[in-house]
Amino acid sequence: MPVVAVNLTEWQQWAACKAHPLAADFYPPSRTERKHERLARERRAKSVCAACPARAACLDYTLAVDERHGVWGGLSSDERRAIPLTA
């Protein structure tokens, strides 16, 4: 059976964050952010991810491209870095 290339960004069409009014919830601000502000922002973003039909595909994508910033697939950048790399 031939390997079929998959569009890594197709999931974005049905991602819940696409309709979320505050994209800033998913990324750290350019100014210094206090810990409680970061946690609240990440909690808001993760609540959008929690019910997202594209969550798994989003996480797969961000791990594949080694995205270092923001909440993707329901995980913060720190949480994604803690995922062990597999060979």
Question: Could you give a short description of this structure?
Answer:
The chain is mainly α. It has three helices and no strands.
How are the SSEs ordered, and which strands pair?
Layout: H1 35-50, H2 55-65, H3 77-81
Salient structural properties:
87 residues, mainly alpha, 0% strand, disordered N terminus
Polypeptide structure, described:
The protein is mostly helical and 87 residues long. It has one domain. It has helices at 35-50, 55-65, 77-81.
Q: Which stretches of 5+ consecutive residues score pLDDT under 50?
A: 1-5
Strand fraction equals under 5%
Q: From N to C, what is the helix and strand string? A: HHH
Structure summary, number of beta strands: 0
Assembly state here? single chain
Name the structural class.
mainly alpha
Number of domains: 1
User: Rg to the nearest angstrom?
Assistant: 14 Å
Percentage of residues in helical conformation: 25-40%
